[in-house]
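Please describe our next protein:
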Amino acid sequence: ARMAGFSSGELDLYDRAKIAEQDARGALSLAERLGREEGLREGRTEGLAEGLREGLAEGLREAVRTVCQALDIELDAERESILAGLGAAELKELQAAYCATAAGADARDQLQAANGIVSLHMSWSSTGANSAVAPPKM
């Protein structure tokens, strides 16, 4: 009823305005959908990377626990807490330190090295240093 008094030109302008409104709604809808899809892709990628980092760190922690168990080294609550606080990079440094120290060492030296590995983080964190963790002295 409102458009009944429109001239042909006014109807054309009215139609174009409504088409432009619909195009704008469609563009917003498309942008929203594409943004959501991109966010999901990024989230999956970041989540996968984080999961891999966490899995690696937990695997390295388990390796240290296994070495300690094999060498009858007690992992008390304090040592377990320190071990839980180490990240993958620190755990890799500990692993490298152990491997370098244990290569060619007798059983007593290996036990001493393993004890040193578990306690290395204490000295590392107490100094506040971010340098590489040195292998334990024999």
